[in-house]
Amino acid sequence: MEEIGTLSNPIILVPESHLAGIKSFDLYANRDLLIKCSRLSEEGKTGLNELKYEKENDFYLSNVISNRFLTFNEVKIALYLYHKLFFTLGEVFSVSRTSISRNNSGGAASINVGQMGALCIGNYTSTVRTGFFEIDKIESLTELLKKDLGMSISPARLTGFLLNLHRFSYITLTYINWYNTKNGLKELRDMIREHNMPSSECEYYTMGRSVLKHIRICERMVKVDMSDKWYKKSIK
User: Fold this and answer.
1) Nearest residue to 164 via CA among 77, 46, 43
2) What is the pTM of this model?
3) Backbone angles phi, psi at 139, to 5 degrees
4) Is the pLDDT of residue 72 over 50?
């Protein structure tokens, strides 16, 4: 299998939450908790894109602390990531390893991704390279949370917290695996077309196990007010 995160086969980031209703994006895990735990569907809305976008305001903090469905750890992680990532286009983190590296020849040292020491990132609108992440500078999110917040969380629990934040649309989570590359996504679309595989099954591939994860803050969760739209009582 071709290597992932290279110039010829870049990682294609998962689209933002407010675009998830577009048919071609059915390959990805949906934002079901956003709908299930709020009154959006009662108001005839299908996502954050249908709420008023207020460019000059920042609702992220109130949108987090008003959501009673988040655990205390999820609140802490959501606010930590917001503080760390808001003025960036996102970062790549390790969840299950404390150090990531490749050797100078481009062969695998501890992880088999990237090219010449860097992970190449594209996006869903263009498969050309839009950014590089130096592999030996990728940090462990478990270690950062322990150092900065005093949180000791296993990789499995942290992955679960991150996935919930993705499903609520606080973050957009891209697993660095084959099926989130240019060629991997083409393979999934071919499987849908040629083998009648339901697109809903594709999320098991795009959310497949990976050491590295790209995380970015959902812009819409910053610029729309969800604070009065969460249900008051748990329905999980």
Assistant:
1) 77
2) 0.87
3) -100, 155
4) yes
